[in-house]
């Protein structure tokens, strides 16, 4: 498969280059050249398919024939070594649990798939070093996703004292090929160090560097698998299916739009946001105005300039540039996506309501999805809605306990983390020290 840039459809690269580059030089985003509907046979067989089989056939469709069957199967099976169960709330509302992976959030799907694809394509004997700056969640998924991948070293920079204790443990307790740098500065300082390394021509002659950025197309592809998996579990008979997706950078919902383009009969998408509501406002009014992000309870969605918006407009026919989608793009997008935004007060009420009415513990991100689904179903009652539960509630333990006034269950793999010793290298914000450290490890 070739991948083109959303800023220039003539700019095409093969899968390997799209995965290692991450971002085209023109600052667009890579998209698969073709997203052709899967054959009728696929949908006839879907009810009997394993999650891994779904992943294999969907990735085959999106990646083309480059990777032999056996290798692609291994990549998919290693990615999907945990389930994505659908839990019923009532006849119209379901929850798709995406938190059964190692870091307890849906980003595990993307990180695991990306690491295995990179490993597959990595034919250079010189080790590859992945640099990641993290404000919390992405780092945990990337660390777990790349853990023990031969030939790939991961260096994670995080701001000292500015990530939660649990997030820090996820970054600093793995060891082996995962190295944590505890930077005496802010997230922006971490990002600046990474950026400077990528711009350092001399360094790049000595070290092979790549990033594990969330806009990498290889993180999006596996996220389309679980839309099929959810549809399979719901059963094909019944009211039309809608997905409510708690959104920040809008990668998750974009993966759903891709699944739909592959032929999955999704009736509608509900984009759910917190007060960072650039996209719901765009859907309503047709004006796309990015804004500084504001801090909320559902903090993994605190994004003021969603990076995947360019992919969304691209899927609806808009090709060049990402700031001013045309009115035809807007019209088409509105037919398939509705957007709703909620503040923290409403989110807390929703966490309590889901617990009281259904006995289900939903995290603040999922709760925003629940609210958005309810808003949509008020107008469209004859639908079956699936809320994507993007993280396990225990990841937000203090907030959850405060909101529900009770203890909540913590999975064993999380409890174990607390007992493991932290290993991180202290680093100041000075680029020279960072560079020296990188080179000293060669
Ligand atoms: C990253 C994240 C989101 C937002 O997903 P996008 O693909 O950026 O829209 C939502 N919930 C949780 C828990 C996340 O970690």
UniProtKB/TrEMBL annotation:
<dbReference type="InterPro" id="IPR036052">
    <property type="entry name" value="TrpB-like_PALP_sf"/>
</dbReference>
<dbReference type="InterPro" id="IPR037158">
    <property type="entry name" value="Thr_synth_N_sf"/>
</dbReference>
<keyword id="KW-0456">Lyase</keyword>
<comment type="pathway">
    <text>Amino-acid biosynthesis; L-threonine biosynthesis; L-threonine from L-aspartate: step 5/5.</text>
</comment>
<dbReference type="GO" id="GO:0030170">
    <property type="term" value="F:pyridoxal phosphate binding"/>
</dbReference>
<feature type="domain" description="Tryptophan synthase beta chain-like PALP">
    <location>
        <begin position="96"/>
        <end position="382"/>
    </location>
</feature>
<keyword id="KW-0663">Pyridoxal phosphate</keyword>
<comment type="similarity">
    <text>Belongs to the threonine synthase family.</text>
</comment>
<dbReference type="GO" id="GO:0004795">
    <property type="term" value="F:threonine synthase activity"/>
</dbReference>
<dbReference type="InterPro" id="IPR001926">
    <property type="entry name" value="TrpB-like_PALP"/>
</dbReference>
<dbReference type="InterPro" id="IPR004450">
    <property type="entry name" value="Thr_synthase-like"/>
</dbReference>
<feature type="domain" description="Threonine synthase N-terminal">
    <location>
        <begin position="2"/>
        <end position="79"/>
    </location>
</feature>
<dbReference type="Pfam" id="PF00291">
    <property type="entry name" value="PALP"/>
</dbReference>
<keyword id="KW-0791">Threonine biosynthesis</keyword>
<protein>
    <recommendedName>
        <fullName>Threonine synthase</fullName>
        <ecNumber>4.2.3.1</ecNumber>
    </recommendedName>
</protein>
<dbReference type="InterPro" id="IPR051166">
    <property type="entry name" value="Threonine_Synthase"/>
</dbReference>
<dbReference type="GO" id="GO:0009088">
    <property type="term" value="P:threonine biosynthetic process"/>
</dbReference>
<keyword id="KW-0028">Amino-acid biosynthesis</keyword>
<dbReference type="Pfam" id="PF14821">
    <property type="entry name" value="Thr_synth_N"/>
</dbReference>
<dbReference type="InterPro" id="IPR000634">
    <property type="entry name" value="Ser/Thr_deHydtase_PyrdxlP-BS"/>
</dbReference>
<feature type="modified residue" description="N6-(pyridoxal phosphate)lysine">
    <location>
        <position position="107"/>
    </location>
</feature>
<dbReference type="InterPro" id="IPR029144">
    <property type="entry name" value="Thr_synth_N"/>
</dbReference>
């Amino acid at each position: 498969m070739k991948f083109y840039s959303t800023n220039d459809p003539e700019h095409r690269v093969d899968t390997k280059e799209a995965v290692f580059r991450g971002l085209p030089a023109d600052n667009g985003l890579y998209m698969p050249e073709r997203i052709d509907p899967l054959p009728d046979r696929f949908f006839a067989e879907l009810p009997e398919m394993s999650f891994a089989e779904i992943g294999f056939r969907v990735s085959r469709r999106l990646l083309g024939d480059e990777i032999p069957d056996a290798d692609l199967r291994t990549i998919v099976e290693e990615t999907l070594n945990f389930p994505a169960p659908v839990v019923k709330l009532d006849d119209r509302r379901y929850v798709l649990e995406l938190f059964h992976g190692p870091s307890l959030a849906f980003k595990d799907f993307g990180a695991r798939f990306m690491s295995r694809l990179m490993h597959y394509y990595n034919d250079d004997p010189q080790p590859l070093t992945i640099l990641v700056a993290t404000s919390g969640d992405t780092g945990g998924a990337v660390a777990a996703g790349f853990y023990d991948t031969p030939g790939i070293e991961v260096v994670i920079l995080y701001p000292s004292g500015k990530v939660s204790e649990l997030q820090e443990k996820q970054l600093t307790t793995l060891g082996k090929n995962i190295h944590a740098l505890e930077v005496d500065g802010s997230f922006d300082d971490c990002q600046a160090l990474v950026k400077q390394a990528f711009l350092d021509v001399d360094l790049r002659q000595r070290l092979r560097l790549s990033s594990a950025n969330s806009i990498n197309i290889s993180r999006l592809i596996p996220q389309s698998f679980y839309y099929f998996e959810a549809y399979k579990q719901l059963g094909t008979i019944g009211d039309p299916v809608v997905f409510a997706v708690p959104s920040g950078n809008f990668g998750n919902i974009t993966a759903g739009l891709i699944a739909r383009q592959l032929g999955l009969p999704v009736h509608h998408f509900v984009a759910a946001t917190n007060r960072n509501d650039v996209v719901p406002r765009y859907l309503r009014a047709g004006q796309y105005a990015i804004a500084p992000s504001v801090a909320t309870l559902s903090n993994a969605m605190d994004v003021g300039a969603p990076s995947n918006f360019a992919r969304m407009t691209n899927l609806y026919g808009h090709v060049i540039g990402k700031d001013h989608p045309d009115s035809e793009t807007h019209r088409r997008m509105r037919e398939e996506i509705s957007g709703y935004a909620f503040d923290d007060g409403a989110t807390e009420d929703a966490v309590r309501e889901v617990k009281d009415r259904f006995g289900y513990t939903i995290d603040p991100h999922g709760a925003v999805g629940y609210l958005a689904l309810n808003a949509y179903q008020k107008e469209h009652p004859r639908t079956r809605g699936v809320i994507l539960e993007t993280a396990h509630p225990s990841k937000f333990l203090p907030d959850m306990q405060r909101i529900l006034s009770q203890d909540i269950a913590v999975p064993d793999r999380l409890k174990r983390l607390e007992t493991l010793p932290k290993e991180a290298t202290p680093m100041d914000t000075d680029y020279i020290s960072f560079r020296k450290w990188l080179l000293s490890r060669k």
